[in-house]
Amino acid sequence: ASKDISWQDVLESPEDLKVYTEATDSVDQLKKFIHLVVCYFVQLQPQQEEELLQKINAYIDANMEHEISRQDLANAVFLNADYLNRLIRNATGMSLKKYVSQRKMNRAMVLLQSTHLPVAIIASKVGFPNSAHFTVVYKKHFGKTPMQTRSGQED
């Protein structure tokens, strides 16, 4: 026999109730509400979600020098690829591809600021075999070139 579920079961906290009341304000708020309901039914608690995000980040960090496909990452953390996409979007507000790119660019910035490695080596360490393409992506992401970052210049 199925158990009748009330909204009080799903909306356990004042924060949950706020997500519910704001669900019609925007598509993003609706996504948050849907995520809350889905998490209730799949029993993915916030702590479990945080653990998954840590595993995802660890995989990205360990494989940064490679192309990271959605399916490879999903397989590594034992998730459906579509669910992985939704999890990242709900947690970060960005697509999985953009999230991976952001982590790579942030790592590149740290390497530029903390080492004397050539830009070409840093580019390869974050998955860009072509340093010219890396420079274009880096500048688009941060608004300055890798060499400007290294020298401390703003533009």
Describe the structure.
With 155 residues, the chain is an all-alpha fold. Helices cover 70% and strands 0% of the residues. The protein is built from ten helices and no strands. The chain has helices at 7-10, 14-21, 27-42, 46-62, 70-76, 81-92, 96-114, 119-125, 131-142, 146-151. Helix 8 (119-125) packs across helix 9 (131-142). The longest helix has 19 residues, at 96-114. It starts with 6 loop residues before the first helix and ends with a helix. The model has no long low-confidence stretch (mean pLDDT 88).
- SS summary, helix count: 10
Order of helices and strands: HHHHHHHHHH
Helix proportion? 55-70%
Mean pLDDT: 88
Strand content: under 5%
Rg, Å, rounded? 20 Å
Main β-sheet description: none
What oligomeric state best describes the polypeptide chains here?
single chain
N-C termini distance: 66 Å
What is the total tally of β strands?
A: 0
Show unreliable segments: none
Sum up the overall morphology in one term: elongated
Please state the structural category. Answer: mainly alpha
Summary, kept brief:
By secondary structure, the protein is mainly α. Helices cover 70% and strands 0% of the residues. Helix 8 (119-125) crosses helix 9 (131-142).
Q: Which helices and strands appear, and what pairs or packs with what?
A:
Blueprint: H1 7-10, H2 14-21, H3 27-42, H4 46-62, H5 70-76, H6 81-92, H7 96-114, H8 119-125, H9 131-142, H10 146-151
Helix pairs in contact: 8-9
